[in-house]
Design goal:
There is one protein chain. This protein has one domain: Hypothetical protein af1432, CATH 1.10.3210. The chain is about 60% helix and about 0% strand. The chain has ten helices and two strands, in the order αααααααββααα. Strands 1-2 form a two-stranded antiparallel ribbon. The chain is globular, with a radius of gyration of 16 Å.
Length: about 190
């Protein structure tokens, strides 16, 4: 099942998503929705509702992980499974590290959400390089092995960016200007 935006907000509420994580997820949703709606002419196979649900719920396991430990990706996948959201599970599973990227295949919802997440630091849209700096500082903590893994992951993200923007009529740098004013197909508030 692909949840509606309102169902996503209800799930965020049900799992007590912290406000800062919700703000991040809403901005990731704006970036992902901008890309999806712009790409749909060249990529009609992409489901805007799946991309939106994946973007809204990509960090659904983060609050639990922060409070009780554990991998937020694994926790998020389990939450999605328990909620009957099988279509969203693969997006949550690969929003940190994209394992199934292939340059020559059609654009996927996973790639869009993965890329959108890398463009949002907290709730601010930033260039990939700035997000990389933050991730290295926050998670690598000077560990050369972790630094290498993170840099390799961002190199994949640059490939995803090139793939996505081949079918878009704006540049990656335009996201910082365009995405904040994107109107999502809901108001972002739980009723």
């Amino acid at each position: 099942m692909i949840p509606s935006p309102q169902e996503c907000l209800d799930i965020m509420y049900k799992y007590h998503m912290l406000d800062n994580i919700k703000a991040h997820s809403l901005m990731v949703a704006k970036v992902a929705y901008l890309i999806t709606t712009a790409a749909v002419q060249n990529a009609p196979h992409i489901s805007p509702s799946l991309v939106l649900a994946g973007a809204l719920l990509h960090d659904i396991g983060k609050t639990e992980a922060l409070r009780n430990g554990g991998d937020h990706v694994e926790i998020g996948q389990e939450i999605c499974r328990m909620e009957g959201l099988a279509e969203v599970v693969p997006i949550v599973a690969e929003h940190v590290v994209l394992k199934s990227f292939t340059e020559d295949r059609k654009i996927t919802a996973k790639e869009i959400v993965y890329y959108a997440d890398k463009r949002v630091n907290h709730d601010e849209i930033v260039p990939l390089e700035k997000r990389l700096e933050y991730i290295l500082e926050r998670y690598a903590c000077g560990n050369p092995r972790l630094e290498d893994l993170i840099i390799r992951n961002f190199n994949v993200c640059k490939q995803v960016e090139a793939k996505l923007f081949r079918c878009l009529d704006f540049e990656p740098s335009d996201i910082e200007r365009l995405a904040p004013v994107v109107k999502l197909p809901f108001d972002g508030q739980r009723h």
